[in-house]
UniProtKB/TrEMBL annotation:
This is Multiple sugar-binding protein. InterPro entries: Bact_solute-bd_prot1, SBP, SBP_1_CS. GO terms for biological process: transmembrane transport. It comes from the Bacteria.
Length: 419
């Protein structure tokens, strides 16, 4: 049921005007009220800062500050919770992390804010708890196989693979042409969470039942298609060049952007710096082909970032003004212009028109229109699952564990997490 939109205007005695869809508030004093948004480290830092600068330029009452956390974001949040010192606004992972913060009464119910009437119905579960919306789903992110169209053409590849056997043939053709098939990012565990989500979602099929069973303590990471998942990872290891465990996300993203590798299993964020490295890079996108059934090769699309509001913020009215700016999809020069309208940017979780459509974005829209998508299954598991899945999968990539040991570790560590 749609919620009515409430005004996000600050209840202060001052004049207001509208510029490009954003409210400009004229302050009575020279002192600005600071609103801080804590975000995790990413290649979008410059874009976020430009968006904040635009907001601050438009009015003289609020100082909107984006604070990039360069360390472990989970540790940062944990420390802030422990000291009861959360920032005014902060990034959360969708589903279980939002639910956890809402259940402990640490974030504001945002059900009546203006964005609640604009976001897609399909994303509301990602930011809700007990039937109420507790966070703004800032964007949708798409996990899959990004590929260099020019390198595919050079290797004589005319169609993207839709089955595992076709994927192996693609790797063979690339290798025969002297092209490294995959850019490695395996030194960092968070990238392996994303790979796991693509593989496990396809392997279990009925992911909703699997997630429910897992969170109820009745499921297992082991499934009828587990061997296919590990066969796919073996293929990646064999086709990621030498010393692939030394490659972190930055080196992997750069290797793909510079044409050193033809494919990368990741999200659109890997392309944020691509144009500065290779302005002519042409990138397409396809779903991870795990099985021999083409219908299983879906794109993994889900809310990537949720913005929550601190229940104890002393700047709630100012925060609402900022939130209105962040979620204005009609403002051609506002936040979405900087955060969602460039190579590698993730589209907002509401209707929005990009000024330029790249091939990977066209591919994404085709998957969406054909209903060939699934959510990120790992993000729907109980909070903390992402912190244990990646390191276990990393052990398999490093060759320290085999398939059975990896699956046993995943099950045992998840059971400990539930306890």
């Amino acid at each position: 049921m749609r919620k009515k939109m409430i005004s996000l205007m600050m209840t202060v005695a001052m004049g207001t005007v509208m510029i490009s869809g954003a409210t400009v508030v004229k302050a009575d004093s020279d002192e600005k009220e600071t609103v801080k948004l804590a975000v995790w480290s990413s290649g979008a830092a410059d874009n976020f800062q430009k968006g904040a600068d635009e907001f601050n330029k438009r009015q003289d009452k609020i100082n909107f500050v984006v604070e990039m956390q360069s360390g472990d974001y989970s540790q940062y949040l944990g420390a802030k919770v422990a000291s009861n010192d959360l920032p005014d606004m902060f990034f959360l992972n969708p589903y279980t992390q939002v639910q956890q913060f809402a259940a402990t009464d640490r974030i504001v119910d945002l059900s009546e804010e203006g964005f609640a009437t604009k976001i897609y119905d399909s994303v509301k579960d990602a930011c809700s708890y007990d039937g109420k919306i507790y966070a703004y789903p800032m964007n949708l992110e798409m996990l899959g196989v990004y590929y260099n169209q020019e390198l595919f053409e050079k290797a004589g590849i005319t169609e993207v693979p839709k089955t595992f056997s076709q994927m192996k043939e693609v790797c063979e053709k690339l290798q025969a042409s002297g092209i490294t098939p995959f850019a490695a990012t395996y030194k960092e565990t968070w990238t392996l969470n994303h790979l796991f989500s693509c593989l496990q979602g396809a392997a279990v099929g009925d992911y909703e039942s699997w997630v429910a069973d897992m969170n109820a303590g009745k499921g297992s990471f082991r499934n009828d298609n587990s061997s296919l998942e590990f066969e796919f990872m073996d293929m990646m290891k064999e086709n990621s060049g030498g010393n692939y465990m030394d490659a972190d996300s930055t080196s992997g993203f750069n290797a793909f952007a510079s044409g050193e590798a033809a494919m990368i299993v990741t999200g659109e964020f890997s392309l944020l710096n691509a144009q500065s490295i290779n302005p002519d890079l042409q990138v397409g996108l396809f779903g991870v082909p795990l099985t021999e059934n083409e219908e299983d090769a879906k794109l993994d699309v889900d809310v990537g970032i949720c913005i929550a509001v601190n229940q104890n913020t002393p700047h709630l009215d100012a925060v609402r003004e900022v939130l209105n700016y962040l979620s204005d999809n009609t403002d051609e020069n506002g936040w979405m212009h900087y955060s969602a309208d460039s190579m590698g940017a993730a589209p907002p979780a509401m209707d929005f028109t990009m000024s330029t459509e790249y091939q990977y974005f066209k591919d994404y829209k085709n998957y969406m229109s054909n209903n060939q998508t699934r959510p990120w299954v790992y993000s729907q598991l109980v909070s903390g699952a992402g912190d244990m899945i990646g390191p276990v999968i990393q052990g398999y990539f490093a060759g320290t564990t085999d398939m059975d040991t990896t699956l046993d570790q995943l099950d045992s560590k998840f059971s400990e997490l539930l306890e």
